[in-house]
Amino acid sequence: EPEVTQTPSHQVTQMGQEVILRCVPISNHLYFYWYRQILGQKVEFLVSFYNNEISEKSEIFDDQFSVERPDGSNFTLKIRSTKLEDSAMYFCASSDLGGFRETQYFGPGTRLLVL
Amino acid sequence: GEDVEQSLFLSVREGDSSVINCTYTDSSSTYLYWYKQEPGAGLQLLTYIFSNMDMKQDQRLTVLLNKKDKHLSLRIADTQTGDSAIYFCAERGDSSYKLIFGSGTRLLVRP
User: Fold this and answer.
1) How far is the alpha carbon of B8 from chain A, nearest alpha carbon, in Å?
2) Percentage of residues in chain A with pLDDT exceeding 70?
3) Do B18 and B7 form a contact (C-beta atoms < 8 A)?
4) Chain A hits for B88, Cβ within 8 Å
5) pLDDT digits over B26-52, tens only?
6) B34 contacts B48 by C-beta, under 8 angstroms
């Protein structure tokens, strides 16, 4: 069964460093998402992406964050200058249809620790 | 704003039924989902229901939706130890693709 994959599974970085989290969505999917879950808190929406542009973003997704689909298979989340509070599990998701019957399939997550 | 609430913990005996409850505030919620998260794993889509439905059954899973009370439940029949996990309720409105998640209910199945 096709699935969303994410790399790396864990990343440790120093505050102020840039990180890039990578995702390979399900191959025929057109809509892509990033969510995050800070330890002990709810899963929060960050951004959605369709047709090579951001379609929706949350207040969390400020200028430090960016997303890109550099080729036909990868979808990346970049955090330009990491802060301690960026430590979280980051989930990528994808879906094949917009609107009616849209269901999002999630990857296993990347656990980011900022020291 | 939109909010989704769940009880934090449920413990059942193997073979019993489990019922996990969820309430939401957004009256425009159109799509409601249940996801399962096992330790160290991602969010696995279990089932979903649209707001024009009252009930959906899928093998051992039954989803009930009371739109008037904004209440959603997931019933797992014949609960097995492999069902032990965190179960997340999530909702989405018609005008947005973002999912709003509850805090998750940790289900513990005792042998």
Assistant:
1) 11
2) 96
3) no
4) 43
5) 777 778 999 999 987 889 999 999 888
6) yes
